[in-house]
Amino acid sequence: MAAPAETIEQIRTTVLDLALKFGPKLLAALIILAIGYLVGRQVSRWLERALMHLEMEPPVRSLIVRIARVAVSLLFVIMALQNLGVELLPLVAGLGVAGAGIALAMQGLLGNLFAGLTIILTKPFRIGEYIGIVGEEGMVETITLFQTTLTHPDRSRVVIPNRKIVGEILHNYGKIRQVDVTVGVAYDTEINQALAVIQEVLRENASVLQDIAPVIGVRLLADSSINIAVKPWVAVQDYGPAGGEINKSILEAFREHGIVIPYPQREVRLLQDAA
């Protein structure tokens, strides 16, 4: 019975010695971590309020706030480890090796991350603008660190990984688009009258932007008609229905003014041998 009692006493003595030796350091490390958490949260709040006064995209502001909070927290973690007597050099080396392995395993994710940072900082497009990229197009709905979401004209969503965007040819329409309509008139039409009628139709259309002059002019002298190009500017959300509305209005106005839209036709001549 004496041996177990001595073992228990040795364990108790060892635990007490360790508690006396490392207890204050552990308590101090926990206090440092708690202070670091509070300081990091306060710094992030202060920084977010300060950045609200600057013209900055929400993803950029959020990224800066997160980086600041992580940096402050990391500083206090290092202080806590130093207080415990942990050797930081071997720890840093081990983290470096582990980080290299993680980076190799997450190449696609990291590629999206760095591409997202590039998009956020260089601002090739903004939320609410209409863009065309990698064979897709739509209005920019969200920009995150890993992906960009577009709202397609058919009301579906297109989610594009950011690494597919950076380095590609980007067509940024902004918030307006140019409608391209072609209408044909007969060769005996008074062309200036036809152009004036089209101008009036565009002036009365609510979807057409009046502060930007539309492009109206003869596009082609075709076989059966004079083709007139009609290119007004409209808001992105009006681009779909605007073409149909303009075509309908031009047809009605031409009928009202007696302007003929000719059918395709060919003139055939029969030559008879005099002999």
Task: Please state how the strands of the largest beta sheet are arranged side by side.
Answer: 4-3-2-1-5
Please report which band the strand proportion falls in: under 5%, 5-15%, 15-25%, 25-35%, 35-45% or over 45%: 15-25%
Number of domains: 3
Estimated structural class: alpha+beta
User: Per CATH, what is the topology of the largest domain?
Assistant: Alpha-Beta Plaits
CATH architecture label of the largest domain: 2-Layer Sandwich
The total count of helices amounts to 6
Termini Cα gap: 145 Å
Helix content: 40-55%
The string of secondary-structure elements, in order, is HHHHEEEEEEEHEEEH
Label the overall shape.
rod-shaped
Radius of gyration: 36 Å
Which stretches are low in confidence, meaning pLDDT under 50 for 5 or more residues running? none
| CATH class annotation of the largest domain | Alpha Beta
- Quaternary state of this entry equals single chain
On the 0-100 scale, what is the average pLDDT?
82
Biggest sheet overview: 5 strands, antiparallel
Structure summary, number of beta strands: 10
Any overview of this molecule?
This protein has six helices and ten strands, in the order ααααβββββββαβββα. It has 275 residues and is α+β, with helices and mostly antiparallel strands. The protein has three domains: 7-86, Helix Hairpins, CATH 1.10.287; 126-174, SH3 type barrels; 176-257, Alpha-Beta Plaits, CATH 3.30.70. The strands form three sheets. It has a five-stranded antiparallel beta sheet. A hairpin with a 3-residue loop joins β2 (136-143) and β3 (147-151). α1 (2-51) runs antiparallel to α2 (58-84) and α5 (191-204) crosses α6 (239-257). It is rod-shaped, with a radius of gyration of 36 Å.
